[in-house]
């Protein structure tokens, strides 16, 4: 809708077969993306948040309950099992992963706190989305550049 190039951190951070890449290998790619004039980046990696925040006009923080997130992850696992999502690195098929489910279930405890610390000082850029209908309303309120 906004005609912005979009990037997914999962595509940078993972390689085929769910092998996590070393940050020193993918961070230069992210730095090049962030230096470009226009972009949307999907992902919540706290270690690169400051890099992205320095150039971001807006941060969209999806603030859904753990129960809703777990339900959506389970639905995604079931409906896309064995296939690789377009926002994922190649050859990383959807699968059941207890560790990832635990991460989602406990996200509000530790990972969220790291993200909130990283966002400190950038509150004026943060838009909190708290319901599934809010993104549609927000996008409808925007006009393409």
In words, what does this structure look like?
This protein has 145 residues and is α/β, with parallel strands linked by helices. The chain has one domain (6-141). Helix content is 43%, strand content 12%. The protein contains 7 helices and 6 strands. The strands form 3 sheets. It has a two-stranded parallel sheet. Strands 2-3 form a two-stranded antiparallel sheet. The chain is globular and about 35 Å long. The termini are close together.
The total tally of domains equals 1
Helix percent band: 40-55%
The global form is globular
Radius of gyration: 16 Å
Low-confidence stretches: none
Number of helices, counting only DSSP H or I runs of 4 residues or more: 7
Secondary-structure-derived class: alpha/beta
- Rounded average pLDDT: 92
Strand content: 5-15%
| Helix-strand sequence | EHEEHEHEHHHEH
Strand order of the largest sheet: 1-4
The CA-CA distance between the termini, in Å, is 10 Å
């Amino acid at each position: 809708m906004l005609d912005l190039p979009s990037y997914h951190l999962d595509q940078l951070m993972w390689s085929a077969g769910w092998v996590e890449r070393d940050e020193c290998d993918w961070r230069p790619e992210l730095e090049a993306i962030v230096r470009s004039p226009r972009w949307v980046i999907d992902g919540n990696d706290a270690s690169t948040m400051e890099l992205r925040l320095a150039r971001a006009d807006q941060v969209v923080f999806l603030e859904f309950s753990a129960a809703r997130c777990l339900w959506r992850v389970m639905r995604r696992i079931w409906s896309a099992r064995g296939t690789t999502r377009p926002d994922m690195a190649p050859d990383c098929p959807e699968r059941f992963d207890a560790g990832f489910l635990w991460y989602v279930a406990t996200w509000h405890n530790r990972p969220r706190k790291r993200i909130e610390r990283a966002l400190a000082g950038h509150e004026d850029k943060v838009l909190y989305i708290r319901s599934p209908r809010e993104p549609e309303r927000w996008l409808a309120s925007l006009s393409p550049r």
